[in-house]
Amino acid sequence: MTVGATTTAPPATTAGPLPAPASPKRERRGRRSGVDVRFSPYLYIAPFFVLFAVTGLFPLLYTGWVALHDWDQIMGQGEFVGLDNFVAVLTGSAFWRAFTNTVSIFVLSSVPQIAAALLIATALDRNLRAKTLWRMGVLLPYVVAPVAVALIFSNLFADRFGLINALLETVGLEPVRWHSDRFASHVAIATMVNFRWTGYNALILLAAMQAVPRDLYEQAAIDGANAWRQFWAITVPMLRPTIIFVIITSTIGGLQIFDEPRMFDQYGRGGADQQWQTLTIYLYELGWTRSDFGMASAVAWLLFLIIVGFGIVNYLITRRIATAEGKKS
Amino acid sequence: MRRPSWFVYGLLAAVVLGSMFPLWWSFLIASHDATVLSRERFPLIPGGNFLRNAATVIDTVPFWRATMNSIIVSTTVSASVVFFSTLAGYAFAKLRFRFSGPLLVFVIATMAVPTQLGVVPLYQVMAKLGWTGELTAVIVPGLVTAFGVFWMTQYLTQAVPTELIEAARVDGASMIRTFWHVGLPAARPAAWMLGLFTFVATWTNFFWPFIVLGPRNPTLPVALQQLQAAHFVDYSLVLAGAVLATIPLILLFAVAGRQLVSGIMQGAVKQ
Fold first, then answer.
1. Which of A40, B5, B183, B184 has the most CB atoms within 10 Å of its CB?
2. How far is Cα A25 from Cα A34, in angstroms, rounded to an integer?
C-alpha cells in the first residue's frame, strides 16, 4: 500500500507551490507553512479513512450487492436474483436453527458474565492488599487465544473421559452429553466465552466503580443502608453508562461468535445435527464449503440487522432498568 | 479505608484459581500420553511427556512457520495501528481543520459496525489481488482501527499542552516536525498500551486468518485448528499445541500485565 509512504513524507517540503524566484525567503516560507497548516491534518487522518474505505466500508456495502445475485465462489457473479437469496435463507430451517443457537449461547454467556463481572469488580473495589496482582490474576484468561480456550474446554467437557463429567459422577450425578445434547453444548460453549471475558469486563466495571465518590457510600451507611442496598442504590445507577457499554460490546461480539463453537468438535460444522451451529458458522459453510457467496452475503446482512436490532433493544432495556433503579432510591 | 474481610479474598482467590486451572489442566494432560484420559484416575501431577508431545506437534503442523507468521503479523499490525492512530489522534485532538468534528463522529460510528460481516467481498478482493494464502491478506485489513484513532484522540487531548504546539510553530517548526517532537513523545504511554492490546487481539484472532490463509501458511490459531482436525483422539497432543501457542502470550502478560490492566482501566473511564 502506498498510503504509508504518502503520509510519512514531510508535507512541508513536498506540498508547497513553487514560489516566484524573486520573492523574499520569508514570504516563501510563510506560504509553504500556510499550505502545511491547511493540509497536514487531512494527511494525518487520511490513512485511516483510505484503509477503512477499502477494507471496511466497501466490503460491507458490496456484501449487499453480492447478496442480490447468484454468486459462486469460483465462477463469480451470476444472474441478478433480487431477494431470492434472502428468501432461500429465511425459509430454510438451518438459518433459524443457527439463529436460535446463537441467541441461546449469547444469553447464556452475557448474562452470567456481566453479573459475575459486577461481583468480581465489587470485590476488587475494596481496599485490597496486592491490588495489581489480583487484577492481573483476573485478567489472565484474556491473553489466551479463543482457539486454545476452545480446545482446552472441549477436553474438559468431553462426553467420555472429560473432567467435568467425572466430577459429576463422583457426586453421584449422571454424566451430561455435552457434545450431543443441544442445550448442554450451549452451556459448554458459553463457559468458554465467559472464561475469556469475565475478568476483562470486571476490570472495565472496576474502573467505573472507582470513579464513584466515596462519600456517597459513607452517607448511605450513615442512613443505615447495608452493602447490598448500597450496591443497588448507588453502584449500579452510577455505573449505568459503563454497563450499557459492556452489554453492547458483548452483544456485537457474542452474536458473531465463531471460534469457540467451530472448535468444539473436530469437524467444525456445529455438531452432527447442527446443535451448536451459529450464524457465523452457517455463513462460513454457505460461502466456503458450498461456494454460495450470494447466500452467505444474505446471511451476513441478516446478521448485521440482528446485531443492530439487539443493540437497540439492549440499550432500551438497560436504560429502563438502570433508571428505575435510580428512581427507587 | 478498612481492609476487606477474608470472604472477599476467598472469592477473588477462587476466581484467580479458576482462571489458572484450565491452563494448568492443559499442561497436565499435555505432559502425559494419549491414554491418560482413559485411566481410572485423573492425573494430579505432570508426567514427563511434554517435550515429546511438543516435538510431535511441531512435526505435524507447520509450527515454526505459524509462530513466525504470528510474530510478523502481530508486530506489523501493532506498529502500524500505533503509528497511524497517533497521527490521526494528534490531528483530531490538537489541530484545527474543517469537518474535524463530523469526521471524528464518523470514526467513532464505524466502531459499531462489525467489519467481520464484509468477509465475503473482502475475500474476493484478496483473491483478485492474489493475496489469499499470503500474510498481506491478514496484515492490510488490520493496519488501522477506529478504536486506535479514538483512543489516541482521547489521550492526546489532555496529554499535549496546546501552548507547546504553538510555541514550536512560532519557532518555525513544520507541522510534521511539531508532531514528531511534541505529539509523539507525549503519546508514548497510551501508544504502548494501544500496541499491547492490538498485539494480543491480532495474535488471538482466528476467523479472518482461517478464511484467507489456508493450511500451508497459517498463523498459530489456524495451525492449532489443523492440529485438532489431524489428531482429534489424541488430546495430549492437541493440548500440547494449545500450551505451546499460549506460552508467548503468557510471557508477554508476565512482563506487561500491569500495563494491560491499567490500560483497560484507563480506557473504561473515558467512555
1. B183
2. 14
